[in-house]
Amino acid sequence: MAAPKKGRGPAGGQSRPGRALVLILIAMVALTGGMFLSGHTTPRLGIDLAGGTSITLEAKTQPGKPNAINPTNMNTAVGIIERRVNGLGVSEAEVQTQGAKNIIVNIPKGTNSEQAREQVGTTAQLYFRPVLTVAASGPGEPTPSGSEKPSDGATPSAEESAKAGDKDKGDKATGDKATSPDSPTASATTQGRAVTGALKKDPTPGASDSSKPKSSTSPDASTPPVDPATAKLQEEFAKLDCTDPKQRAAAGKDAKPTDSIVACGSNTPGQYEKYVLGPAEVSGSDVSDAQGAIDQTTGEWIVSMEFTSGGAKKFKTITSRLSQQQPPMNQFAIVLDGEVVSAPSVRTALSANAQISGSFDQQSAEDLGNILSYGALPLTFEEASVTTVTAALGGEQLQAGLIAGAIGLALVVIYLVAYYRGLAFIALLSLLVSGILTYTIMALLGPAIGFALNLPAVCGAIVAIGITADSFIVYFERVRDEIREGRTLRPAIERAWPRARRTILVSDFVSFLAAAVLFVVTVGKVQGFAFTLGLTTLLDVVVVFLFTKPVMTLMGRTKFFSSGNSWSGLDPKRLGAKPPLRRSRRASGSTDPKEA
């Protein structure tokens, strides 16, 4: 049997290192191109680096509702708080749960922190208001339907209602199961849902009234003069453009319950309706309970409401009056934070119980049930802490972190050059590739999943420099061990790789496991450290396998390294390999191929 050729290792790693290098080059180009095309060329900075206000809200147990603090209610509260913060014009605000009872609100610089604290920490006002006028809002909006001269604090008369249009032709709904078997039906506009026993779907607001006679505006002896408050309300309604986020956020805000208001609502993304609403007649505190459920008769998702004794009387009064009106003045709007979240129409008087039905799915039914049941925020919150970070302080922290990272990197480079000499070039190239991959991925993760680079995350990236350098050192030392045993460089590179690979994988697995556990059991900013540590640990494996090993193979073919140059870091004499031992092994290999 012929003796195997000396210096031959695994063919794939030695003969085709270019494939791995091409693969990682493609990945780097794709990530860099995606970063520039997305327009996010820098990582998103956390509040401790960019500056702003961080508010921690702690949920409190409510009397009579011991199980109110649950994931569903916490997520509902996060959505409501996020909407309030966005209503302030804040961009890139972060609202997230922390543990089982806390919500963290991070508001970047440029926002009035006091106003933000008032918005996110209080339980908003929820009111039921009668609809006086409704129209689609936006360019080319149609003529509004309903009363043309809503009075401040007054309900439209029956004569005005009769002029608004004929009865709507919506589908009938099932009777209110909480009242009598012959409960009447009703319809609703596309805004919101419909209350059974009271509601179902109507045409688009304003569209169904296009062929109906309009209310007369000609003054006569019986027409009362228009008071200034009503004229102002009409002017606000005419100017209101609900497609403008600023106008939409300002409409209906800071109004008293006894005032008539203009407000915006939307049932379809990108399509808005504007309303003139009368004084509030039922408040959120009058609702004792509301929840999403499946109607056993139709199989559709509905929202059932139960009122307190006082709320039931108020609701019966308003629904009795509205049931006598014509669309759209037979509607009542459910208004949260000045925004119309639903506007069902009424065909009969309702009492203590009602059901809202329409185009609900499970999520939307449960969300509306929570809003109605808890009067805005589903839980009561208290401020556990408020931290304000100035932009200057954030900049100082970022600068300090970058300086610390530069010092750490410089120390690693000095060590590598002093001890490994020429091999330090391979290590520095690998660190550069790892840095490019880390930076581009962090920049892309900001808009993708909301990842923000905070100070602990910077610390995690600095620690990763040592982890990455450790992988190179493990491989370099394995190669040097093979050379000390008398092997030449090219077979030493291939024989050292399997042993070094196992050590690197075990080491990185332990680091990743620690990062994963830290991410799961901690909250807040510490998770940034754990996430960055885990990400860079995974990238270390990618870089070592797809870049460091192939480059080492290519460098082993050059004269500078293969000849054992004293500056290569692989000089056999400096490593303690004795030439007689190497000659002895060659002689042994020539007489007995099995030992070779």
Describe the structure.
This protein has 596 residues and is an alpha+beta fold. Strand 7 and strand 8 form a beta hairpin. The protein has a 5-stranded mixed β-barrel with strand order 4-8-7-13-12. It is built from 18 helices and 15 strands.
What are the main properties of this structure?
disordered N terminus, single chain, alpha+beta, 596 residues
Distance, first to last CA: 13 Å
Strand content: 15-25%
Counting DSSP E segments of at least 2 residues, the number of strands comes to 15
Mean pLDDT: 74
Strand order of the largest sheet: 4-8-7-13-12
- State the helicity in percent bands: 40-55%
SS-derived structural category:
alpha+beta
Q: What is the CA-atom radius of gyration, in angstroms?
A: 35 Å
Main sheet properties: 5 strands, mixed, barrel
Extract low-pLDDT stretches: 1-14, 147-226, 580-596
